[in-house]
Amino acid sequence: MRLRITLTFGAVLMAIGLAVSVETQGSDEYIAKARAASGADFSALLGVTCDLVKAPAGAPPAAPAAPAAPGPPARATWHAEPAKVFDNLYFVGQSEYSAWAVTTSNGIILMDAIFDYSVEDEVVNGLKALGLDPAQIKYVVISHAHGDHVGGAGFLQKRGARIVMSAADWDLMDAAKVAYLKPTRDIVATDGQKLTLGDTTVTLYVTPGHTLGTISSLIPVKDGTRTHVAAYWGGTAFNWLRGPAAYITPERPASFWFTQYANSARRFRDLAGAAGADVLLSNHTNFDGSKAKIPALRTRAAGAPHPYVVGKDAVRRYLTVADDCARAGLSASAVR
Asked: The whole model's pTM is what?
């Protein structure tokens, strides 16, 4: 009897070892697919997704975050000049965090509101510098209720703008303890909602993952006589790995967040493909290449390719990276 028990236990260990090997190989396979889809284009996206699941060989350990100094950071550390990007789209964000003004025949739709300390400088004064009227901001679409995107919403709401956010992220906003002025609950976005202002319609999709109610959008943009569709992926990093206390619960382990994220990335990839999206936009300047593309626009010759028009295949690859990195995380989390 004792020998039989030993042999059975050994067989169980072998089975577990095989399962671990298969799952680990699955994670590595997804990461390899993501890196192939990324190529040299989307290394910043890999850095906050796949590299958090499994850092590349030889990568130095991540440095601990420096403690935040009291009060807002010095303007010189975050200020960026506003820029016209398309005929109906303007960058009014910071050096690292983006806000986008979509101009229409009846006012402005603002995509994200950056921080409370920078919103007046970048959005209000930025629009003025571009010859636009900030009083014409009719809607502010918040991609997700983190302070780097919703912090300025309360300020803009007091100036008359309507704030648009998903139900889940309105709940997240209500529960959050923050030092900035919160917006009061206003327009609750629904999945597939078409937000029309004048001659322009922005389509909103609820894509849970980065938060439970992250919104990703399809935005029509114009470049002379050419029209394009921009895919705006609303939440990027795997924050449940960087800051699990804000995400992980017994009901919502890491596998829950990876599953939500992967499903949303695949779905939005298909929606963007069906819409013919050939432009990528992000609410962080690293992820869509804005730090290089905006300067390139200043020297763009008439008729030259537009830096932001990356093509349908690139949009698909970007969202494939997001999907495969989440699948890698799900596979890895199954064996932890």
From this structure: 0.91
